[in-house]
Design a protein that fits this description.
The structure is a single chain. By secondary structure, this protein is α+β, with helices and mostly antiparallel strands. It is elongated and about 100 Å long. Helix content is about 30%, strand content about 30%. It has a five-stranded antiparallel β-sheet with strand order 3-2-1-5-6, with helices on one face. The chain contains two helices and nine strands, in the order ααβββββββββ.
Length: about 190
């Protein structure tokens, strides 16, 4: 009879203990979610800036080493995307990066590459004031830029910004615009 009166401790957890753990996890996730979203947006800005930088260097190389023709990059911005097309100019036709890749240029203009960055990604590209608007050319065979001080700002919806610049010699560099911070990237 004495053995029946001695209770053994149960091996489970109570509903109260589960609720306390869930409340603590909810608070911790609530604190960490904004910083995770910022980190994700910063990485997307960095990825787009690196792709643009590599593509500008590619266009420069094509102008002098590959095709020995002027190579152009045309930028566009619409509500649904930011984009650019790298192409070799022909006499007739036009290019628009808002068309699908592979079909961005018509007639005898030769499309080399088209990149589209959807607005849903939270990143947009903005070209500095240049003439002709939203376009840069690399002049063959010297591989120099047609526009001194050409710059594209890659900005995220959460405030991250990088700027990709091309100097008169055609060299491409990436920097952080005024009042910005991006670890490992120099200021402009």
């Amino acid at each position: 009879m004495l053995a029946k009166m001695i209770r053994r401790p149960s091996a489970g957890v109570t509903l109260t203990e589960v609720m306390v753990v869930l409340a603590i996890l909810g608070v911790l996730l609530g604190l960490g979610a904004p910083s995770f979203a910022d980190m994700l947006n910063r990485r997307r800005v960095q990825m787009v800036a690196e792709t643009l930088s590599n593509d500008l260097a590619y266009a420069r190389a094509e102008a002098g080493l590959g095709r020995n023709q002027n190579v152009n990059i045309l930028f566009e911005q619409a509500a649904s995307m930011s984009c650019y097309t790298i192409f070799v100019a022909g006499v007739f036709g036009n290019c628009s990066c808002s068309r699908p890749a592979g079909a961005a240029c018509t007639s005898i203009k030769v499309e080399l590459r088209t990149v589209q960055v959807p607005s849903s990604m939270g990143v947009a590209m903005t070209v500095s004031d240049v003439n002709p608007p939203n376009q840069i050319s690399f002049v063959a065979p010297r591989m120099t830029s047609s526009t001194d001080g050409f710059a594209v700002t890659v900005a995220g919806v959460r405030g991250s910004k990088l700027q990709v610049q091309v100097n008169a010699m055609g060299r491409v560099s990436t920097c952080v615009p005024t009042n910005g911070s991006f670890s490992g990237v120099p200021a402009c």
